[in-house]
């Protein structure tokens, strides 16, 4: 096993209770080809919360080994809110607010993740999805 593979797996072991398909992850890391890891968020608020921190620091570790993080902005799912109309927790948010929240998320993520285009991409899921590589 490569030293970089072991370093990554050691970090996962510290921050994860269980890694499903650990043998497959080890094999993929050992190939030396960059992984593309997708991380999706709905932008229902203008800020990340502490629950994002462990993931972001793990993704930074992956970036430092040359792997690509694709940050997926869930602008479409944010826009529809609660389709049943029963939940006040997921209200319909105006497009301008969604865009402002998305930009704020990208700004905040860039405080932890490298925004070097070689290891970071921003994608949107909306119907007119813009692929904003940052």
Envelope shape: elongated
Mind telling me the CATH class of the largest domain?
Alpha Beta
CATH fold type of the largest domain: Rossmann fold
CATH homologous group name of the largest domain: HUPs
Instruction: Report the CATH architecture of the largest domain.
Output: 3-Layer(aba) Sandwich
- Radius of gyration of CA atoms, rounded to a whole number: 17 Å
Question: Which helices and strands, and how do they pair?
Answer:
Elements: H1 3-15, H2 22-30, E1 36-41, H3 53-64, E2 68-73, H4 75-80, H5 95-109, E3 120-124
Parallel strand pairs: 1-2, 2-3
Helix pairs in contact: 1-3
Word description of this protein:
With 134 residues, the chain is of the alpha/beta class. It has two domains: 1-33, no CATH class; 34-134, Rossmann fold (3-Layer(aba) Sandwich). Helix content is 41%, strand content 13%. It is built from five helices and three strands, in the order H-H-E-H-E-H-H-E. It has helices at residues 3-15, 22-30, 53-64, 75-80, 95-109, and strands spanning 36-41, 68-73, 120-124. A three-stranded parallel beta sheet has the order 1-2-3, with helices on one face. Strand 1, helix 3 (53-64) and strand 2 (68-73) form a beta-alpha-beta unit. Helix 1 runs antiparallel to helix 3. The mean pLDDT is 87.
Task: For the structure shown, list the relevant keywords.
41% helix, 2 domains, 5 helices, three-stranded parallel beta sheet, 134 residues, Rossmann fold, alpha/beta, elongated
């Amino acid at each position: 096993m490569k030293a970089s593979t072991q370093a990554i797996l050691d970090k996962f072991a510290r921050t994860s209770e269980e890694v499903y398909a650990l043998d497959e992850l080890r094999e993929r890391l050992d190939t030396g080809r960059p992984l593309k890891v997708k991380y999706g968020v709905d932008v229902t608020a203008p800020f990340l919360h502490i629950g994002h921190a462990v993931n972001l620091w793990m993704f930074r570790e992956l970036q430092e080994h040359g792997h690509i993080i694709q940050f997926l902005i869930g602008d479409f799912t944010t826009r529809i809110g609660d389709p049943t109309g029963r939940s006040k927790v997921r209200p319909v948010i105006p497009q301008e607010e969604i865009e402002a929240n998305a930009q704020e998320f990208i700004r905040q993520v860039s405080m932890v993740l490298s925004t070097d285009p070689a290891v970071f991409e921003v994608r949107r899921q909306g119907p007119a999805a813009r692929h904003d590589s940052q």
